[in-house]
């Protein structure tokens, strides 16, 4: 019984000292606590965490109904962390810089999304399926367009963001299939896969479902 009480007291002391360390890290002293009428754990957490500026592309990534694996690849691309061959060459992993899709340009983020003729064809058809009539630009241009024109919460904007995530994912998947498995699919089959998956993902939202019902199932 005595040992249990000593153990409990020791645990309380450790927790108290640890809490004091957190409060000091947040810039608070004992007298500050004594003068408080109310105590907010959220405010303490925010002081400990610090302030971070919001990235401009947060809505493209965070407000996206796409699959988690789509969002993961999209974020890597936006942050320039995707392992394209131009990066692998710098690390000495490979000497081949050619794009696995078109076999002509140097594979980089800018080339693969969407300067490559294959990926540009895929994205232009996805744009046309959404009723968007414009020429496909480079990755920086497409991202800027998404941030400017499709940052709202309308069904059209949400479908666009989902299409962007799905398209980048399947282009990257096709790239890897050609590199590691020596397999390749046609543009038609890739586009149909993207459209089908976007339709399936849209079921989770009544608003998106209504929007997608008004669009062709196949582009």
Write up this protein.
The chain contains 12 helices and no strands. Helix 7 crosses helix 8, helix 10 packs across helix 11 and helix 10 packs across helix 12. It starts with a helix and ends in a 6-residue tail after the last helix. 25% of the residues are buried. By secondary structure, the protein is mainly α. The model has no long low-confidence stretch (mean pLDDT 86). It folds into 2 domains: 48 residues, no CATH class; 156 residues, no CATH class.
C-alpha termini separation: 74 Å
Radius of gyration over alpha carbons? 25 Å
Largest sheet: none
The unreliable regions are none
Q: How many domains is the backbone divided into?
A: 2
* Class of secondary structure makeup: mainly alpha
The H-and-E topology, N to C, reads as HHHHHHHHHHHH
Number of continuous helical runs: 12
Q: How many strands appear in the DSSP assignment?
A: 0
